[in-house]
Amino acid sequence: MAYEAVWMKDPSKLNKIEFAKHEKDGLDVIRTIIEEYAHKGYDAIDADDMNRFKWAGVYEQKPRDGHFMMRIRINQGVMTSEQARGLASIARDYGRGLIDVTTRQAIQYHWLRVEQLPDIFKRLEAVGLYSFEACGDCPRTIVGNPLAGIDKDEFMDTTELVEQVNDYFLMNRDFSNLPRKYKMSISSSIYNNANAEINDLAFVPATKVIDGEEVRGFHAYVGGGLSAKPHLAQELDLFVRPEDVLKVAIGVTTIFRDYGYRQKRHHARLKFLVADWGVEKFKAKLLELIGDMPDAGENKIVGWKGVYFDGVHPQRQEGYSYIGLNVPVGRTNAEEFDQLAELADTYGDGKIRTTMTQNIILAGIADENVERVLQAPVLQRLSPKPKHFMSRTVSCTGNEFCNLAIVETKERARRVAQYLDDHVELDEKIRIHMIGCPNSCGQKHIADIGLQGTLVKTPDGMVDAFDIAVGGILGPDAQFNKALKGRVKGDEVGPVLAELVAFYKAERTDSESFHQFVQRVGVPAFQEKLTEILAATA
Ligand code: HEM
Ligand code: SF4
């Protein structure tokens, strides 16, 4: 460890997890798992180490009966077919075949047992993949533009930069004890394909004229994050050349490590420090650490397409296309992964790409082969032309596997989307995100319609219910959605949303998107409508 743990000087400002983290680094649990727990079994795991399992990318699954979930980092969501096959074989051997694509482009397994973890670590490493630091108070999966290198709408291919930053931070003990989770996003997409505003640190495309020449680089945003107190990241007044990205990342992460709050777990993310300091003070501190840098140039993000890619699209390379596939609520399996790997090798560029909307992209397909790919059996379920609501529905893990969940989400979200597709005809695509508790792993705040699980009292006892929020968006007009009053019972979500969507359909002007409509009519109009719908169903 090449730094001093300055925060330990004042123990009165530390929560109790901080003492455990200081006593034994989270990364040390990987060795303990391999050498001890894999042999002694679940019952031998001590409580502090169970928390440290997150640094190995492993979380206890509900109902704490010895099964685990595991998250695998996929840098900017791009993996090779060999890696996809490796992932599929692990899922098949240990994870009941299940593979979830997450809202940060990662892959998640369920049903693992501690005895299996050493073999899984080994098999992942054999294909160059890691679960390490995919969870825990450390730098997590670096999200990015899944179209990096093939995108017509990016300023540069960020693949090498993402790898450089990932390789620097992964397993780096100087940064494995942060106050809380730490999420980075690096993308040069003008459509903000890596959701910059909801990350702790994000790099977005920018240009600046320096010595008479236009230089392509980045602007840096800091302090974004969701959960119960969501914050949009704020732009620093800096222009970052590509060769300075790592330096800025190290500087920002050092500030978080040394000045971030460690007193309360729910007040520890970088967003709280940024909100208190303001961006000017943050920039001054950063420059103190990394030296002078030019002021900001021109931010090149022009819009946001919700990070959706479904359908066939031309890529930057003439004569080649990419095909965006819908993975309903992000859940796929080993069988489908193997088939996708086969398609990627036979017709594509040998890669499989995951998106922050829990979907998959195949790329590098010569135009003359597109039809063949579209006919492949696996594309009949993972459709490039999904029904509208299914295509735009995201869900967190929910109480099927998550110990923090208040309600069931994934299967319910799928049913809601299906209900809407069966009952509502609409040319527009409305983005719906469902989460099972305020933590917002399913990024509720950025949805057109966000659904947050809760419970309501009824004469028959407590039942699952949802709070509704409308009008979220990222990009130049970024804002989180606004919550409406009035809880909707779990089995009424589909019909209630159908009525809210009918309201939009009836009152919108030509080609007005759902977001534009919310902006025009205002949240109170939605509130009035929801109150009316709930009164009628009561
Ligand atoms: C066992 C419990 C949990 C499960 C199963 C779970 C699951 C997930 C999954 C699958 C993702 C996608 C993430 C990725 O690939 O990095 C995610 C992201 C996220 N998680 Fe959790 N999570 C859990 C606990 C928590 C807790 C305790 C918090 C907050 C206090 C939290 C807040 C978030 C947020 C805000 C995201 C947002 C995605 C983003 O940053 O873009 N989660 N979680
Ligand atoms: S949002 Fe809540 S219920 Fe859903 S996965 Fe995250 S912690 Fe679990």
Automatic annotation (TrEMBL):
<protein>
    <submittedName>
        <fullName>Nitrite/sulfite reductase</fullName>
    </submittedName>
</protein>
<dbReference type="InterPro" id="IPR006066">
    <property type="entry name" value="NO2/SO3_Rdtase_FeS/sirohaem_BS"/>
</dbReference>
<feature type="domain" description="Nitrite/sulphite reductase 4Fe-4S">
    <location>
        <begin position="393"/>
        <end position="532"/>
    </location>
</feature>
<feature type="domain" description="Nitrite/Sulfite reductase ferredoxin-like">
    <location>
        <begin position="313"/>
        <end position="376"/>
    </location>
</feature>
<dbReference type="InterPro" id="IPR036136">
    <property type="entry name" value="Nit/Sulf_reduc_fer-like_dom_sf"/>
</dbReference>
<keyword id="KW-0004">4Fe-4S</keyword>
<keyword id="KW-0349">Heme</keyword>
<keyword id="KW-0408">Iron</keyword>
<dbReference type="Pfam" id="PF01077">
    <property type="entry name" value="NIR_SIR"/>
</dbReference>
<feature type="domain" description="Nitrite/sulphite reductase 4Fe-4S">
    <location>
        <begin position="135"/>
        <end position="288"/>
    </location>
</feature>
<feature type="domain" description="Nitrite/Sulfite reductase ferredoxin-like">
    <location>
        <begin position="60"/>
        <end position="127"/>
    </location>
</feature>
<dbReference type="InterPro" id="IPR005117">
    <property type="entry name" value="NiRdtase/SiRdtase_haem-b_fer"/>
</dbReference>
<comment type="similarity">
    <text>Belongs to the nitrite and sulfite reductase 4Fe-4S domain family.</text>
</comment>
<dbReference type="GO" id="GO:0020037">
    <property type="term" value="F:heme binding"/>
</dbReference>
<keyword id="KW-0411">Iron-sulfur</keyword>
<dbReference type="GO" id="GO:0051539">
    <property type="term" value="F:4 iron, 4 sulfur cluster binding"/>
</dbReference>
<dbReference type="InterPro" id="IPR045854">
    <property type="entry name" value="NO2/SO3_Rdtase_4Fe4S_sf"/>
</dbReference>
<dbReference type="GO" id="GO:0016491">
    <property type="term" value="F:oxidoreductase activity"/>
</dbReference>
<dbReference type="InterPro" id="IPR006067">
    <property type="entry name" value="NO2/SO3_Rdtase_4Fe4S_dom"/>
</dbReference>
<keyword id="KW-0479">Metal-binding</keyword>
<keyword id="KW-0560">Oxidoreductase</keyword>
<dbReference type="GO" id="GO:0046872">
    <property type="term" value="F:metal ion binding"/>
</dbReference>
<dbReference type="InterPro" id="IPR051329">
    <property type="entry name" value="NIR_SIR_4Fe-4S"/>
</dbReference>
<dbReference type="Pfam" id="PF03460">
    <property type="entry name" value="NIR_SIR_ferr"/>
</dbReference>
